[in-house]
Design goal:
The chain is an alpha/beta fold. It has two domains: 7-33 and 276-370; 56-255, no CATH class. The chain has helices spanning 7-25, 184-190, 199-209, 216-219, 296-333, 338-370; strands at residues 34-36, 56-59, 62-66, 71-75, 77-81, 88-90, 93-96, 101-104, 107-109, 132-135, 138-142, 156-157, 171-172, 227-228, 257-259. The chain is globular and about 55 Å long. The termini are far apart.
Amino acid sequence: MHIHSTIRSWSLRVLSLAFLVTALSGASFAQFRVAITVGPPALPVYEQPLCPGDGYLWTPGYWYWDDDISDYYWVPGTWVMAPEVGFLWTPGWWGWGGDAFIFHEGFWGPTVGFYGGINYGFGYFGVGFAGGRWDNGHFFYNRAVANVNVTNIHNVYNTTVNNVTVNRVSYNGGNGGVEARPTPQEEAAANERHIAPVAAQTQHVQAARGNPELRASANHGKPAIAATEKPGEFSGHGVVQAREAGAPYKEESRGAVQSRTESPAGRPENNPAHPVVHPNDLPPAEHLPAPNTGDAKLDQKYQKQQQKLAAQQDKERQKLQQKQDQEHQQMAKQKADDAKTQQLEQKHQQQTQQLQQRHAAQQQRMQARQAPAPHAAPARR
């Protein structure tokens, strides 16, 4: 592993780790693991607000998680100006990762990728996007799906979309989740150039997080601010209220973060004596199995792709570690108190876990792409 920590920052990290472990384990060193084990509430029923202007694209609402209150909160759907001509929005989605729910961040790109098969509505019916398309540098809105004022916006068309909503489940996999897997086209979209959520979207999420009315425990799956005309505008005529919850609300989602007993032989990230808080705490990256398609040239190509991905992920680990070390050094100079130190460690733990999850998903997608094609059955005569 690459160690970039100074002695001073390392001492701070060891001290802050002690506070973090004590806070999470209740002053005991019993084996535990923090995991979001209950999926988000159902998607509420609401109308789409009027599109505020040409070039705005719809980004559907979704439930997000707040560690500080151990609760989901609703991020209202909103219209966002596309960051580039030709780019579309792929919504984020929750998926069951085998022992916890993981949120996959949305992104901008030339093609809509996989978003868990979740039916967010308004053109996002589980696969692709039917709410509009780019044509010669202009976005054309499908009036059968999008709420557009044709007096102000003339680049429209009308194509009926046959969509039957069976339920309003908001997550993929797990108990009662949507059973969907990415198509080859969606996997290809994941490898295209992407842009992360723009600043307006990030601020929109933060505004939602700070509004107690948007917490699931407060609105029981029926948020008063279900959608807005523009990001962060949570009052005025452009706010749309949910008509009803998508399903009866279950109070158990308040206890979604649970401390569970683990055996000492569990993974390092399950052991508080060696918690995963920083990239240097992660175990060495697992190597993908050597390609074996039967085609030597293709195997060589795949091997190079694996090496490139491994180098990229190692670089990202180092970059995040360096950033976190700098924050530790700054905290030490400021002589921060224990509360601020613990808050920083919690932030670093979340960053590291997200990095690990993203890298695991990248490896899974690559392994799926490089799997040998099944032999075709002989044709019947």
